[in-house]
Design brief:
The protein is mostly beta strands. It is built from five helices and 51 strands.
Length: 748
């Protein structure tokens, strides 16, 4: 009887085991890669490719249809030999689940190990192999061990890290290139570029981007070279239009490609890219959770930041990055390339790049190039530790769907292993990005903020180029060069470190020196007869010669004067100017060739920051003490002659009322030099802003005579006089004590 019962038990067990591996549309169905009929060995010697592929194929067809919503899971038990050795697996979208474990460098219960020079998971170009992706990317509790003993990057010429486009235009003998889709910014200066057909006899033109005229907008975006062209280091030998071109990144040559990867979805067709379409109705979000990616070599030099070898990559996605990905507890250990979300190398406009709504959270990325990603909306990178020579790159390329990474969030990123020199800082070409508590460059490295609406709060940098428009940075670091409009930088230096006994809410600016074209530009808000109509306190006002409180250097060091908030001030703040103080250099002006001319209002017959003509100096100020205030403007870099004086009666004591005072400066007859503003044995004053307005004959080419006096000579506040939706204007009379003037206007 016992024998009969034993046999019955064996039969039932065998039946249950068979049911586990029978194709089943049940939601919780799992296909065990080590169980029959798949029989993966997991001995780290036998190539388990066929067994794993059979399990994945069965899981992808588990529903009996092409509906990825019911794709079953492939389960990987802890392998007895330490890993599942496999040739490249063609991924079909089945969820992959390993036995849960802690993850760390070469740690984990379940390892999938590649053969030398091969990918582990791969999705082919759908223009080459019909795409049978029945689900979305879903991987949990699995470690990848990438064999990086061989450099196979030359075997993958399509796996570019730069960006390619097909509308490059350049004329023979010219160095000026234009493109609409290339999305070139000042952060590309110095990078390598190849323009197909523009070299001798139609050969490729290989050179570098030598310069870009202005940095507040895209370069070469116009079809003509008259506005802000991309200037190459070498002239073209052949005229081309709609030419294929590619721009490198982080100093790499344009032919730089990626070798084998742990996870690779790439474009392998050299002639075209077809947008991948899922072979299912499933539109679920992708998942990477508790995933470990390791290299077999474990190469890392924490001093140079060179991590990994042989151009291996943890993740390489090209024109097919997962939509709505959640990547949590994903650790990348010692691969040369970390996460690359690239665009197609040919016909990129019809493809895609990074996808939207991705969240990367709680990660370690050890890679020489941690992150390079193009485009994508509403993506988030949070709580990440980096180790690598170069920074994170969020770049853009003009494609049919999207053109830049927008609504980007980067929160709490520690960047270690940054070298003293030779590395590249972060590059952010985003629109409306929020960065918080991040080290965006170190030491001699330069970070680039080339977008618009970027806020970087609590950031640190070695040096920073802030371009684009409307960007705000707070933190601490070295030199900041401002090439954009309406950008603001404030240092995180404690008030007591720069000015003893100042209150806690005192703020300081760093040293954001403006590009010369910004400090000296003249736009529709400039004046021709000496008045304050161009005091644009909002918007693009910093493109004019307006000095805000945080723009004034403190004792000619790298910090601004102490700044105090004041709701009564026209600018909402003021600087305190005491007895025998002087204002000579300003952080937001052009970084000049010498320490004495940097940030100074220089003028000379050979050219200076301001025209060597007559002009009007305006100061908005309020009484902070008792007595008669006397401000003096001197030629402090010339013969120290007094150029003009401004007086104000403060015998009534401190006041919250700000008055706009002015004085004419005759720079035309003055010795070459620079003018300053000094207090001469005066009680202290509060300065809301300073502006110098040179006399000019026209405003943006419009003769002054075209301005007309409106009927009734309306009196308006001088700040609002300069422009309305339909007019431009200036004050024909000096503003009175309330700031009102007679406003002269013309139609836009």
């Amino acid at each position: 009887m016992r024998s009969v019962l034993f046999i019955i038990c064996l039969i039932l067990a065998a039946s249950a085991a068979a049911q586990i591996n029978t194709l089943n549309s049940g939601v919780n169905t799992q296909f065990n890669a080590m169980a029959p009929p798949y029989n993966a060995k997991g001995d780290c010697v036998t190539d388990d490719h066929d067994a794993i592929m059979a399990a994945m194929t069965a899981a992808c067809h588990a529903s009996g249809s092409n509906s990825g919503a019911n794709a079953a899971t492939v389960y990987f038990p802890k392998p007895p030999g330490g890993c599942y050795l496999t040739s490249t697996l063609e991924y079909c979208g089945a969820p992959l689940q390993g036995q849960p474990s802690q993850i760390g460098f070469k740690q984990g219960n379940v390892f999938l190990k590649s053969q030398p020079g091969q990918d582990i998971l791969h999705i082919s170009d759908p223009s080459v192999v019909p795409l049978n992706l029945y689900g979305v990317l879903w991987i949990k509790d699995i470690s990848f061990l990438l064999d990086d003993s061989v450099d196979v990057s030359a075997s993958h010429p399509h796996r570019i890290v730069g960006r390619a486009f097909d509308d490059a235009r350049i004329s023979a003998g010219s160095t000026k290139l234009t493109t609409s889709n290339g999305r070139v910014t000042c952060g590309d200066v110095g990078q390598n570029i190849r323009v197909m057909g523009a070299g001798p006899s139609g050969a490729p033109l290989d050179t570098t981007i030598a310069s870009i005229g202005i940095c507040w907008t895209l370069a070469g975006h116009s079809t003509t070279t008259s506005f802000n062209p991309i200037v190459l280091a070498t002239a073209a030998s052949t005229t081309v239009s709609n030419a294929h071109a590619i721009i490198g990144v982080n100093g790499y040559r344009v032919t730089q490609t990626v070798g084998n990867a742990a996870i690779a979805f790439d474009n392998s067709n050299p002639s075209r890219w077809l947008t991948a379409t899922h072979n299912s109705s499933n539109s679920g979000y992708a998942l990477l959770e508790n995933v470990n990616i390791n290299s077999t070599s474990g190469v890392m030099n924490s001093n140079t930041g060179i991590v990994g070898q042989n151009n291996t990559a943890a993740i390489y996605w090209q024109s097919f990055a997962p939509y709505g990905l959640k990547a949590e507890n994903v650790n990348i250990w010692r691969t040369y390339w970390g996460v690359i979300q690239a665009c197609a190398d040919t016909n990129s406009y019809n493809g895609g790049c990074a996808q939207d709504l991705q969240t990367w959270e709680h990660m370690m990325i050890q890679a020489t190039n941690p992150v390079i990603t193009y485009d994508g909306l509403f993506n988030m990178w949070k709580s990440i530790q980096l180790c690598g020579s170069n920074g994170m790159d969020f770049l853009d390329l003009g494609v049919a769907g999207e053109t830049q990474p927008a609504a980007l969030t980067i929160d709490t990123v520690e960047h270690e292993c940054q070298p003293q020199s030779g590395g590249y800082g972060w590059r952010i070409n985003a629109g409306t990005a929020r960065i918080q508590a991040a080290s965006i460059s170190a030491n001699a490295e330069t970070a680039y903020l080339d977008g618009s609406g970027i806020t970087c709060t609590g950031c640190t940098w070695g040096s920073l180029n802030i371009n684009g428009q409307g960007n705000r940075v707070t933190g601490s670091g070295g030199l900041v060069t401002n090439g954009g409009h309406d950008n603001e930088v404030k240092t995180g230096v404690p008030a007591y470190a720069a000015y003893d006994q100042m209150p806690p809410n005192t703020e300081f600016s760093g040293w954001p020196m403006k590009k010369s074209y910004l400090a000296g530009e003249m736009d529709g808000s400039w004046l021709s007869d000496g008045n304050a109509a161009s005091t644009r306190l909002q918007g693009y006002g910093r493109g004019d010669l307006i000095v805000f409180p945080e723009d004034v250097l403190f004792n000619l060091n790298q910090y601004s004067m102490p700044v105090r908030p004041d709701s009564a001030s026209p600018t909402g703040r003021y600087i305190w100017m005491g007895t025998s103080n002087y204002l000579q250099q300003f952080t937001h002006l052009y970084y000049g060739p010498t320490a004495t001319t940097s940030g100074a209002f220089t003028f000379s017959s050979a050219g200076g920051l301001v025209p060597k003509t007559a002009g009007t100096l305006y100061v908005s100020m309020a009484c902070a003490g008792t007595g008669s205030v006397l401000l003096v403007s001197k030629n402090y870099l010339g013969n120290y002659a007094i150029l003009g004086t401004i007086s104000m009666d403060c015998t009534g004591g401190p006041s919250s009322t700000y008055y706009l005072k002015s004085v004419r400066l005759d720079l035309a007859s003055a010795q070459d030099g620079a003018f300053d503003i000094e207090t001469a044995a005066s009680p202290p004053v509060k300065i809301a802003y300073i502006q110098y307005v040179p006399d000019i004959a026209s405003i943006n080419g419009t003769p002054v005579s075209s301005f007309v006096t409106p009927s009734g000579n309306p009196t308006v506040n001088h700040i609002s006089c300069w422009a309305t939706a339909t007019t431009l204007g200036y004050c024909s009379t000096a503003p009175d004590a309330t700031g009102a003037c007679t406003c002269i206007t013309r139609s836009r």
